[in-house]
Sequence to fold (327 residues):
Amino acid sequence: MKINVKYLFLLIINIFGLGVFNLFSQNIKVSVLNNNEPAPYAFIKINGNNIGIADSLGNYFFSEEIIKSNDIISAEYITLSSENVKYNKNKKEYIIKIKESLLPTVIVTAEKIYSFDEYFDLVKNNRYSYNCNKYQVDYDIDILNIKKEIKTECAGNLSVVLRRGYGTDFFRTITHSYIGDTIYVCKYVSTGILYAKDLLNEMTQISFLRNLKSKGKLLIHKYMDKDSQITCFTFIGGKKKDYQTAVYFNSITKRLIEIRGSFFNEVWSESVKIITDYDNKNKVLIEKVIQANLRNNNGLEVNAYINNIHGEYYSKKKVNRFFKDKN
Fold:
């Protein structure tokens, strides 16, 4: 068989040349460090907008075509922020350090422990319930535009009813003290509560976590600090490692005291901080304060602070009757 040498040469150039082109087109390297160790699957940001997720060694490559001089490169790792680094077109490699800590004081027992069963034991006494169907909350919301100027600023209180159906939560405004863009305010308050509820529910559902673990989609670490009496578990999961959560327990009382979560996709990035309490009367975990941040890649950013949360427990029959009367 006669081989066309010219055709073979062009084929090799096409295959390997394309690979080399892709390699060199992604010519900016960012390495993210946490306590001088690689931060695997950190979220990489330009001017606060997510552009991608680092690999298992904390490295991320991108093209210089998507960044301009003096743009800010930063990162987020399991809800922790990094330092800001200014882009210089003459520099091709950047090291970004996470500036925050998972724990409020210096980690004196700097252990990373793969401990799934221990988390289960703590969760057994910190179950969260979806039976709380009505909320009365105080809120403070800022909606910022692409220039980070406040577009809408509002505060007040809001009453929200929850309806479960087809696996989705729906919220309906009952009363509203703020005179203005009621639809937007209700939307962002409801979104904050919804995200918090979903996150609390997921992190206290043993079946959910065990399912992720069995599929190999969950990385778990445990951090302890005897001085602050806090135990922290971190979770990185999702198909693209785009789901990152830190869960804090009081080491003495075994109560869940705080959850921080971050989620990344191509359109929106979301982060939420939930300070929890325990309702001794109903024997369930409840939200006390919710801080939510939503940002899209078009420059819109929403910061919501929701507190003074009071929940009322209703039977499913009563909630359905409420919506039937309203419709």
User: Anything to note?
Assistant: Confidence is low (pLDDT under 50) at residues 9-13, 18-24, 164-179, 315-327. Residues 182-203 form the longest helix (22 residues).
